[in-house]
Amino acid sequence: PQEKGSTFLQLGSSTEQQLQVIFEVLEEYDWTAFAVLTTLLPGHEDVAAYVEVLTDGSFVGWEHRGVLTLNLSDGDADGARLRRQLREVSAHIRLLYCSRDEAEAIFRAARDAGLTGPGYVWFLVGASFGGSDALPE
């Protein structure tokens, strides 16, 4: 008997689709002031550029407070530089594009800096979190 070929269907959402949904949520809650935080993960420049496309072509009065590329170099073992970088972001709404491993370090530093409690909203953007059993604390 002849075997039939199989078809692989990926049901993950693209980063662009994720950003579109995030901006719909931001608009719904009238959260217009936000910042984009990235690491040097491949695609970080595309994410920043797409956020510009979404906000520039919108009738919503977005207050884009910039893009911060976080430095996760080995020279910051205690996370002091990362905590300082995170504190410099004035927006309480943060769109974060990074890898899963980087997210753990970033959220640890954010928690230590007091940036994860009430009043702070973080959106994780990217494909590296889909299907995860557990998200970073």
TrEMBL record:
Pfam families: ANF_receptor
CC terms in the record's Gene Ontology section: membrane
UniProt entry keywords in alphabetical sequence: Membrane, Transmembrane, Transmembrane helix
Domain of life: Eukaryota
Cellular localization per UniProt: Membrane
Principal location listed in the UniProt entry: membrane
UniProt domain Receptor ligand binding region: residue ranges: 6-124
Protein name per Swiss-Prot or TrEMBL: NMDE4 protein
Gene name of the encoded protein: Grin2d
